[in-house]
Write a structure and sequence with these properties.
By secondary structure, the protein is mostly helical. The chain has helices at 5-11, 21-30, 35-45, 57-66, 76-93, 97-110, 123-141, 153-177, 187-190, 192-206, and strands at residues 179-180, 185-186. The chain is 64% helix and 2% strand. The termini are far apart.
């Protein structure tokens, strides 16, 4: 069982069960979600979507098969924690970088720069942000291919790396600062409704 699983449950106000918690984690660890399911997990984790989302049925049924006492309808908060745990499991497995990236972005973006309240397990978005930071470093160190004719390939590679590092460093600082560049104030003072629009505009400004 994941070393943080019981801590995640307690952070959400749920008490782990020595008998059922290992069963729940086994399902989470072995389940391989589709991209559509990952988005549904993110929505459930942040309370955007209820258990009526059909894309959650397969995951919910797997949990119910492992633990007949579990109910998607009656244990909504527990189900939302399981959804977040599945996103973290997808990130840590990283069998498909695109799915891992999508899972991390769902957790990070759903937090709306720290303005969203009532997050079941605050450590999960933080773990996703650390993953994204690590991906930035890997991307910056990747080869950008051969240089143009007459240009030293090493110089061309360095130029490409610096461009990537500059863009992603700006985005990373913007992400962790929880501060609006346009409004010149913390996002918490901007408020959630305005943040939803302004944050998208600011992120577009940082994109090259």
């Amino acid at each position: 069982m994941h070393k943080q699983f019981t801590a995640w449950l307690r952070a959400a106000g749920l008490e782990p069960n020595d008998e059922t918690s290992p069963k729940h984690w086994k399902v989470i660890d072995e389940y391989v979600p589709t991209a559509h399911e990952i988005i549904a997990f993110g929505r459930l984790f942040y309370g955007f979507k209820g258990q009526e989302d059909a894309s959650l049925d397969k995951f919910g049924m797997a949990l119910q098969d492992a633990d007949t006492t579990f109910s998607m309808q009656d244990q909504k908060r527990q189900f939302s924690v399981f959804a977040g745990a599945e996103l973290i499991a997808t990130i840590e497995r990283n069998q498909d970088e695109q799915l891992a990236d999508l899972a991390a972005l769902c957790l990070v973006c759903g937090g709306a720069q720290g303005t969203r309240t009532g997050v079941p397990v605050p450590d999960m978005p933080k773990a996703a942000a650390r993953y994204i930071e690590g991906r930035t470093g890997k991307r910056a160190s990747a080869s950008v291919g051969a240089g143009e004719e007459g240009v030293d390939p090493k110089i061309k590679k360095l130029e490409g790396e610096l461009t990537i590092v500059a863009e992603e460093a700006n985005m990373l600082w913007w992400l962790i600062s929880e501060f609006s560049r346009d409004r010149n104030q913390p996002w918490k003072r901007v408020g959630f409704p305005a943040t939803s629009i302004i944050a998208g505009k600011e992120l577009a400004d940082l994109s090259q």
